[in-house]
From TrEMBL:
CC terms in the record's Gene Ontology section: cytoplasm; nucleoplasm
Gene3D superfamilies membership: Helix-loop-helix DNA-binding domain
Ranges in a coiled coil: 74-101
Lineage: Eukaryota, Metazoa, Chordata, Craniata, Vertebrata
Cellular location(s): Cytoplasm; Nucleus
Domain BHLH span(s) in chain numbering: 19-77
Region listing for Disordered, in residue ranges: 1-34
Described function: Transcription regulator. Forms a sequence-specific DNA-binding protein complex with MAD1, MAD4, MNT, WBSCR14 and MLXIP which recognizes the core sequence 5'-CACGTG-3'. The TCFL4-MAD1, TCFL4-MAD4, TCFL4-WBSCR14 complexes are transcriptional repressors. Plays a role in transcriptional activation of glycolytic target genes. Involved in glucose-responsive gene regulation.
Keyword line: Activator, Coiled coil, Cytoplasm, DNA-binding, Nucleus, Phosphoprotein, Repressor, Transcription, Transcription regulation
Subunit structure: Efficient DNA binding requires dimerization with another bHLH protein. Binds DNA as a heterodimer with MAD1, MAD4, MNT, WBSCR14 and MLXIP. Can also bind DNA as a homodimer.
SMART domains to which the protein is assigned, alphabetical: HLH
Protein name: Max-like protein X
Stretches with biased composition (Basic and acidic residues): 1-17, 25-34
Length: 188
């Protein structure tokens, strides 16, 4: 009986060890499968990791190449995001300037509606508007090219330098004369 009991204990110990070894092997295989799936997912997501046909035949990309191409692609996406943010900033500046112009135009229309007969015999409203629009468009273009609104400090500094450069009497005179010549050529 003692021999039989020793005989039964030994396979039980081996069986326990075998189960532990098998569980460890399964866990390790699961970890490897998860890593492989991660690399496969990266290859599927990253456009530069697409399989290429080489003269020898199809070769699988190494893990190092997949990681490097993924890093390169993420850096590319960061640059694109920054470029889009800059475009949005520029568009916000345009919207701000257009809102300012809209308010000014609305004030002019309101002033005209409050006193509709003033200057009726001199110049038509359409011509006045065209002259005003031409002057404002010219100023807006230079304003838009020169002004940064990323911070109040930059805006203040840019506005003052823009006024100094683009609102000198001679510069404004040249703009007005140019617009008047343009409107005159449209009328005649």
């Amino acid at each position: 009986d003692d021999e039989d009991s020793d005989y039964h204990q030994e396979p039980y110990k081996e069986s326990y060890k075998d189960r532990r070894r098998r569980a460890h092997t399964q866990a390790e295989q699961k970890r490897r499968d998860a890593i492989k799936k991660g690399y496969d997912d990266l290859q599927a997501i990253v456009p530069t990791c697409e399989q290429q046909d080489f003269s020898i035949g199809s070769q699988k990309l190494s893990k190092a190449i997949v990681l490097q191409k993924t890093i390169d692609y993420i850096q590319f996406l960061h640059k694109e995001k920054k470029k889009q943010e800059e475009e949005v900033s520029t568009l916000r500046k345009d919207v701000m300037a257009l809102k300012i112009m809209k308010v000014n135009y609305e004030q002019i229309v309101k002033a005209h509606q409050d006193n509709p007969n003033e200057g009726k015999d001199q110049v038509s409203d359409k011509v006045k508007f065209n002259v005003f629009q031409g002057i404002m468009d010219s100023l807006f273009q230079s304003f838009n090219a020169s002004i940064s609104v990323t911070s109040f400090q930059e805006l203040s500094a840019c506005v003052f330098s823009w006024i100094e450069e683009h609102c000198k009497p001679q510069t404004l005179r040249d703009i007005v004369i140019g617009v008047l010549h343009q409107v005159k050529s449209q009328l005649y």
